[in-house]
Amino acid sequence: MISGRAVGDQANAPANDKITLATIGNGKMMGGSHLPHFVNMPEIQVVAVCDVDTNRRDEAKRIVDQAYGNGDCETYVDYHDILARDDIDAVAIGTPGHWHV
After folding, report:
1. How far apart are CA 19 and CA 30, in angstroms?
2. 3-state secondary structure of 19
3. Does the pLDDT of residue 15 top 50, yes or no?
4. In percent, how much of the chain has pLDDT > 90?
5. Tens digit of each residue's pLDDT (9 = 90 or more) over 40-53
């Protein structure tokens, strides 16, 4: 379900210029390969990244910050903190097989 904030539901608020996105899991396969594409999509603004691995988390933040020319990307270790944010419209989850349950 897309929030009214994302699509401009008249009962809520006008549409965002961009869909705010967070990523959970930023390894070499799914999450890590998708992030460089997300930051180049004009309709998306990546605002946060989450990974339990410090190196992967820091690399994901570097990719986002470099693409946008700032240091605004937030980092998280616990995915619950990302899901608790009410300013994120979508989450891309790229976790290994043992997390899929």
Report:
1. 20
2. strand
3. yes
4. 64
5. 999 999 999 999 99
What is the value of pTM for the model shown? 0.79
3-state secondary structure of 90: strand
Cα–Cα distance measured from residue 36 to residue 45, given in angstroms and rounded to the nearest whole number: 12
Tokens representing residue 26 in the block: 């930023």
In three-state secondary structure terms, 91 is: strand
Which strand ranges, in their side-by-side order, compose the sheet holding 44-50? 74-76, 44-50, 19-24, 90-93
CB atoms within 10 A of CB 97: 6
39 vs 25: CA distance, rounded Å: 16
Q: What is the 3-state secondary structure of 21-61? A: EEEECCCCCHHHHHHHHHCCCCCEEEEEEECCCHHHHHHHH
**How far does Cα 6 stand from its chain's mean position?**
14
80 Cβ neighbours under 8 A, 6+ residues apart = none
Q: Cβ atoms within 10 A of the Cβ of 73, count?
A: 22
